[in-house]
Write a structure and sequence with these properties.
The chain is an alpha/beta fold and 268 residues long. The protein has helices spanning 10-15, 17-21, 25-31, 47-54, 66-76, 113-123, 141-153, 173-182, 201-209, 213-221, 224-237, and strands at residues 37-40, 58-63, 82-85, 98-104, 124-134, 186-199, 248-260. It has a single domain (2-261), classed as Rossmann fold, CATH 3.40.50.150.
């Protein structure tokens, strides 16, 4: 199952790629209307859930990976969020239980995005809003760095890290908006969110060592000497990416889409 890759990596995820995913949280919150009942899908270490609770949402959150849920619960402390371990496409919530649903970088990690979206539509009340983000497929500064390391060392990710043909969708504004429309959502709008991600080089590398994302897949598949070569190649390149604050700076963008569950005549 796609979520096996997330087992036991909550702490390095939070320091590396979790910090990256958290960059879109302010824009996700902007899309939400007045606070009500929110479900945060694939909550990871809880970035969206915790921020939404702080601005007044009554938050439920779930993740397929138990250690992510445990980490998020500890981090959330007294925020009053109800966390559970659960996996799309089968959720333990009644029909129409939520005013809003957020899925920050989750639809790009599940095996069956259409079945997942059907389930999210089920738990959303008519008129309720879904906000989802995914990474675009085009070249990014982080993607370029990973490609250079791979080309220099010959350590490529194993094949098959993409969804099967027919399950996948284009990682663009049009692709994500089209997927939401296809899955019965209305008033679909999609846009690009731009930001600079600042991250400590060792913390980012801890995510690679934990086997996260495309560079992590390549690292996990490499032997010990190739892993050492990858780290040396990384250390050689990071000074050019480092700002005055001593952190790596990456100018990045994400695709954000927002849509509502339409109100049917039978709902009134
Ligand atoms: C890239 S992380 C995003 C986490 C979080 N939303 C954030 O912004 O940091 C993807 C998350 O989706 C979870 N996940 C993967 N497949 C899932 C599924 N079928 N159902 C629920 N969660 C899933 C993973 O365990 C992981 O925590």
């Amino acid at each position: 199952m796609a979520f096996a890759e997330w087992a036991g990596i909550a702490a390095p995820y939070d320091r590396s790629f979790g910090a990256l995913c958290a960059c879109t949280v302010p824009e996700v919150l902007v899309e939400l209307a007045a606070a009500g009942r929110l479900l945060d899908v694939g909550t990871g270490t809880g970035s969206v859930a915790i921020s939404a609770a702080r601005v007044g949402w009554a938050v439920d959150a779930f993740d397929a990976e138990r250690s992510m849920v445990d980490f998020a619960m500890q981090r959330a402390d007294a925020a009053g969020i109800r966390f559970v371990t659960a996996a799309l496409p089968h959720l333990p919530y009644p029909d129409q239980a939520f005013d809003a649903v957020t899925a920050n970088f989750v639809l790009n990690h599940i095996d069956h995005p259409r079945a997942g979206l059907a389930e999210l539509r089920r738990v959303l009340r008519p008129g309720g809003r879904l906000v989802a983000t995914v990474w675009p497929w085009e070249a990014t500064p982080t993607g370029r760095l990973w490609r250079e390391l791979q080309d220099e060392t010959g350590a490529y990710p194993p094949p098959g890290t993409r969804l099967p043909e027919g399950s996948d969708f284009d990682r663009s504004e049009e692709g994500l908006a089209g997927l939401l429309a296809e899955c019965g959502f209305a008033e679909v709008r999609a846009r690009r969110v731009h930001f600079t991600w600042r991250v400590d080089a060792d913390e980012l590398w801890s995510g690679v060592e934990a086997g996260i994302a495309v560079m992590g897949y390549a690292y996990a598949a490499a032997d010990a000497s190739t892993r050492a070569a990858l780290r040396a190649a990384y250390d050689a390149r990071t000074p050019a990416l480092t700002g005055d604050d001593g952190l790596l700076h990456f100018g990045l963008s994400a695709v954000l889409a927002s849509a509502v569950r339409p109100v049917q005549k039978s709902d009134s």
